[in-house]
Amino acid sequence: MMVTRRRAIQILSGVTVASVTGVGKAQWGFAPSLSYPAIRVGNIRTLQNNQPLYFAYPDSRAQAILIKLGRPALGGVGQNRDIVAFSATCTHMGCGVQYKGGRLVCPCHYSMFDPTKAAQVYQGLASTGLPRIRLRIAQNGDILANAMEGLIWGRTKNV
Predict the structure, then answer these.
(1) Which InterPro entries does the UniProt entry name for this protein (predicted)?
(2) Active site residues
(3) Terminal CA-to-CA distance of the chain, rounded, Å?
(4) 113, 101 contact by CB (below 8 A)
């Protein structure tokens, strides 16, 4: 059977629509989430606005950062939706990212990421945002990391 150009485009359009409309668990703006055992990162009562808390997630080799921004953020948790966490490994060449002046900054090549917009890159050489760490807050105020959205730079799988 010969496939015409028109039929090939129809087939490819159907595949694109299926992938965008929900085959799989991808959400708009986020990569598929990979769940790992939940770990305690801190407690909501001890967080201070704009004071980053560094921790390892999803394993001991992966630097991560938790921030209470003091303003709502996409994917944020807590009463004000202002607590977020991300991989602290730059998506350009794997340098450690730091929180300064309300943004996540890579000191190696000056890529900058907006923590209120799911760590979307807005300046520098990085071409993708930082992987987001999903958080939940337990009844006692403990903040638990329980999933990673995206792939940590330099890895073929996160764990």
Answers:
(1) AioB/IdrB_ssu, Rieske_2Fe-2S, Rieske_2Fe-2S_sf, Rieske_Fe-S_prot
(2) 92, 109
(3) 45
(4) no
In angstroms, the CA 59 to CA 55 distance is: 10
Is 5 part of a structural domain of the chain?
A: no
pTM of the predicted model as reported, rounded to 2 decimal places: 0.78
**Tens-place pLDDT, residues 13-51:** 655 444 444 444 444 444 556 678 899 999 999 999 999
What residue numbers bound the domain in which 51 lies? 33-149
